[in-house]
Amino acid sequence: MISGIPITHFLIVSTLMFFTGIYGFLTRRNLITMLMSIELILNSVNINFVVFNRYLYPDQLQGHFFALFIIAIAAAEASVAIALIINIYRRFTSIDSDTVNEMKY
Amino acid sequence: MGANVFMFYLFSATMLLFAVLAVTSRRILRAAVFLLFALVATSGLYFLLQYQFLAGVQLALYAGGIVVMIIFSILLTHHISHKFELPPLLKVFSGFSAASLGALITLMAILKYPFKPVTTSPAGPDMRVIGIQLMGTGKNGYALPFEVISILLLAAMIGAIVIAKKKN
Asked: How many CA atoms lie within 13 A of A92 on its CB side?
């Protein structure tokens, strides 16, 4: 823990970041910016895991490893999503989620 | 007010500011760069919490890998001068009210719950301990998720190549 900073301040910061991501996900209509909002959400969840680990169970490493695996899964998810987005762009020449309304092959 | 406390508030303010800018900016390349700044500030928080390894992973994978990949895909799919039109007011209003309601409920829950943090603060984990636990199979061992995630990354890599390659 950091002396002088209560755990709630960390949690407030990560909550605000999470709902910033939610807001972006709801208002954006471009697939890449929606992906960026998802990255913000995953990142704020990571902060929560790490802070709970550090403040409540500092002799364990569960939260630390959870955060590590979340980062790896975020990388895998982003790579597949970007491949899909590039394929959608080739087919529709646009990556707005409104124009992509048929997924039939 | 110690230097640690000051750095915490500096990193948090940077992170929140750039997160808001990343979801509201009308130029997509700028939004990606704002996202990069928010992620770098997050790794600063990890350094403050003395998780140096995690902070390094955050910098290398998130800031170095994912954001660069996002920027490449932006350059492949957009004109550099492309500017979004503003989202409709109703959508902004409903998105904002949904987000702020959720934030309100979560903040109320956080502020009400009596957390009991440990008062002693041992040093951050040794790199040796992290390595042993990541490869361990006994108690506190993470060998199975480590192997599963390596298979997942391989599958994601092959899948991305198959999806994105041109049909001939």
From this structure: 19
